[in-house]
């Protein structure tokens, strides 16, 4: 996909879109023949980032694979809201086994495809942060190290949301959850804990790792499409705000996601074979406070102000900006 | 050790008999004493318990003689073949032998023999051949066949030489105490 | 063709002939020789169109097979003991989803305390997960049951575990008649799935089922086991026609016709039991034996019929329902309710303790002459137990029980003071 730098100063949304792109680069959602892999009628909450991300990701995979896709889902929000008995919102072959085994189940689907020589069919495994970072971690690592031909997509809403908002290994520092309450000397999730799954994925040396956000759906589609152009173990980590668990306004899901990106707290980058190869630069760095202030799960940092916590979190964002070179004046152009 | 039992079983099978071999179920730790069992019969073998009352005892590691009760359960008319360079009378078993006058004891340097041919003191092939020679329970040809089947190529040939020499050694050296 | 071969190797040979398409294996004693042999066969190209995955855990192994089976592939793995429990969640999942996976269980005790030797506590722990459970008496039957298992599993869309005693059978070197490819192909057609992930015809598999329909789904799973009561003997019969030998079935009988006292057991101990029966009969005792092959489904009707007019049935089982007693004997009792037959529970062979013919004979005589306590623990060292109980009563910090017992039995040295 070719890039053309265009400056738009507009409303707070990404109105920039399809009309300015070539036919092949347009979002698949803008087409009448889009597959609607995750069809309407599911039971996701209003403003659910995961539903949005999943819809875009899977339809992009369907386009990339000419509709030859099998999806494996871990237990979690996506699985629950998409298959409310007796209905299913899935228009693709879909398998839900357990909470902790989606990567292994997908490895099995891929192995069967190889055994039967039907290699045009591709597999996507998907799960939330709980399924990916915690309970499914062992199976995920196994799938990575075997380099099984699976694209694993993690929809990271930073807690176990389906079960009522409990802390996961992806919950950010100082965030409230029902198991890291805003009480005591250090309210919210402690500092200095948690896993960086994208970097762990990179450490396995797999062909492709990327982070994406529902704040930039074109970028998400591009990365998913790129991932499907290679074979082997691939991982995409998508940041998806959860209005319920983050205690944010459902109408502001995309804005919140964008602030996470623009503050540097959620860097957008790609890596191949364990090395960062590209990143999306930040036009203008936003202070982390602006991002945190929109979410009730951080409100205990503001009343009274916890200067130290805010400073540490700003430092975390600054570190990412440095690490991924997010403020370079020239964006990384693809040759 | 397990190989020895399996070689006996293979040779017996080759001789048209029914044979069952299995390792003991004691500790699996490397270096711990290991026992293996073998039953040979002309009828089907249904028993699954360890051999508590052997007719024949092959002791591949004679350092165990005074460390554990190797002879427990041995039939009063049993046969014992020990892997040792020492003669039977030099093994410190005088008292035991007096208490078990009908037991036949043999001593045979199986490890040494193996060392000469294979470069490693692995006693199993020699002991199995010795057993075959003493008891006549296995034919020489079947022992050779079992060895070739178990050990491929050059190793099989070398082991066959060990077997042959062991067979002849034991039959020409009446080493019974 | 008859061959002197290790049990594990024979089973691997049989599984390979069944044309598995995906195998995912994690090593655990005493199953390792099976998966090693299969790994070599796949790598050497001896099994066509087959993928062998070395996975990160037993939970991973069964999960891989769930995905592969849902994709329409014939699948196989092997495990035991701790490994079986580690995949417990996936076990229920596979059965609930109706996936015809075949798995060898090289029966081994479950810790703590850790123990690598044979008993049936692993299979028994998972008896209600929905898998069919078949027990092999010897390595010939182990070979034959695996071939029958694929037929059974795929016919009913229900996973099957073939249980064979760890070490006692897996590591026994004995003569087995190994089948050839043509025979297996004649008996086992290619896998035709009832449900499959197919982009041409998408389905959702594994959705939540609420209170409105869950019971019905579970009943249908139960119904498969009821159907298996008919399918198992039929498949055994078909097997006999092609392979020219009897293997499997729901249960077998040995001198049960005029027997007043019966023995019943699962697995390899049946060989020793038959020898005991012969000796007892030679002494004039009217004794017979039943070898139970199918534990799930439990063949209640066939068992009632086999028990006939026996006054007493002594169940020798290698498992313990902690706090309760016998597992197999409980099921036997339930099956025989209404009949006057006495049922004795003999807990034996736990953690690999050998069961001798002599002990079986003594137990039968004791049962008939004096009766047995319920449950009866065969060959238990009561002295060591009582010493340990005394020690525990004397001081709170009495230390780890296994260590104390081993010391009492003289199996480990004293404490270094």
Would you kindly provide a written description of the structure presented here, covering whatever features stand out?
- Chain A has 335 residues and is α/β, with parallel strands linked by helices.
- Chain A has a single domain (18-323), classed as Thiamin diphosphate (ThDP)-binding fold, Pyr/PP domains (Rossmann fold).
- Chain A is built from eleven helices and eight strands.
- Chain A is globular.
- Chain B has 177 residues and is α/β, with parallel strands linked by helices.
- Helix content of chain C is 42%, strand content 18%.
- In chain C, strands 3-2-4-5-7-6-13 form a seven-stranded mixed sheet, sandwiched between helices. In chain C, strands 10-12-11-14-15-16 form a six-stranded mixed sheet, sandwiched between helices.
- In chain C, strand 6, helix 7 and strand 7 (160-165) form a beta-alpha-beta unit.
- Classes of the chains: A alpha/beta (335), B alpha/beta (177), C alpha/beta (417).
- The interface between A and C is large, with 45 and 44 residues.
- Strand 2 (94-96) of chain A pairs parallel with strand 9 (204-205) of chain C.
Jot down its keywords:
heterotrimer; A: 335 residues; alpha/beta; Rossmann fold; 8 strands; globular; C: 417 residues; 7-stranded mixed sheet; 6-stranded mixed sheet; 15 helices; 16 strands
